[in-house]
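Morning!

As promised:
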Amino acid sequence: MDERDALGTLEAVLFAAGDPVRLDALQKIFAKPPETLRRLAEKLKERLEARGSGLTLREVAGGYQLVTRPEYYDAIEKLTQVVDRRLTAPTMETLSIIAFKQPITKAEIEAIRGVRAEKALARLLEYELIAEVGRKQAIGRPILYGTTDRFLQVFGLKSLEDLPSLPTDEEALAQLDVQQLSLIDRGRLPGN
Amino acid sequence: MDDYRIQLAAFEGPLDLLMHLIEKNKIDIYDIPIAELTRQYMEHLNRMRELDMEIASSFLVMAATLLQIKSRMMLPQQSKEKETAEEDPRQELVARLLEYKKFQQVSELLQGQAVSEARFCAREPLDLPTHHVLADRLPLSRLLAAFQAVLAVREELRLPDALVQPESFTVQEKMSELRQLLVRVPRCLYFSEAFTSGNRTELIVTFLALLELIRLGEVRVLQAGAYEEITMEQVRGRKQEESQHG
């Protein structure tokens, strides 16, 4: 297989797969070392760009995926009814806690958020952003939750190590100050 | 008052309410005036009660926590030394508030990430034709080979010869067991799953039962590809069909 062929094959494979294809799966198809495949993927990405393709290569969830370029999203959007599946703030917070603290039980999530988590968990399970990953060796053997590959895809992460770092105490407080300022700006600070 | 109602309803939990009070009063989180914060917190709960709002138990737990911290703060310090040794009763609350805030922040960040990532569109995986060229009916030799593999595994496990009076198994019994198994398992049943228990005799009877079910057209065996494990599934409404397994 020469390089031209290999590039074509990779493009075809990724097109057919739809989902991200892991490096080990590519290794089975190409019988080539991971380094070569990584270079090949990089080459394909450049090639797509060079020919002004509407597609690009995305490295996500531990694999490579052929996707449309974000700048054409507005056009694609017109093809379909847009359903806003944005998560509500409480659900999103629950998901963040799971992402950073996994594996984690419902009780542990509730301890951090100070409210019950059933609804948020049900929603996240439904969207396949989290899954049951086991049972904690504790009384009642509570279910442990963790994030899924779908979570990585939705948030464009290569792996969990790709998560942004959790804010420090100072950063958390800094945001508090900003909010206070904006409250003053809007004259909403009552009583004084 | 109406305005108030809306604000009250917006609090998702006790930490949310506390955070709001701290922000509203520009409180230094490391030196929380606990008496004042507790007073305002209780005031909110009372308003909620007046408005006949249901108060989640988590709000009451937090109220108790606040009151406990407040009372501990009011206790006279016994000695200078003890004062330094004993931790600030507010410390745990501050830690919880900060952690809560952090996750709030990072979740906003992630939300933003999801919004921009949603602009990448991918296809659904192609329904590749190879998924359909399943060996619908396998030659008997394949089945036998699979069965022998099961037996070989049993052999390796070196099950002790029956110490108890050997039970007798009938093909009929095993057939109904297999039927039940097939109904219970929502997906295809793996070959090895059907042969999990029993000694040599029982395994052989189970295998005969499987062959009988295939003959009757109640069960179909499939193999997704070469060397893949053989699976079996129920055939619905095709009881009379003839099979050609061998």
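Chain A touches chain B through 50 residues (CB under 8 Å).

Hope this helps with the figure draft.
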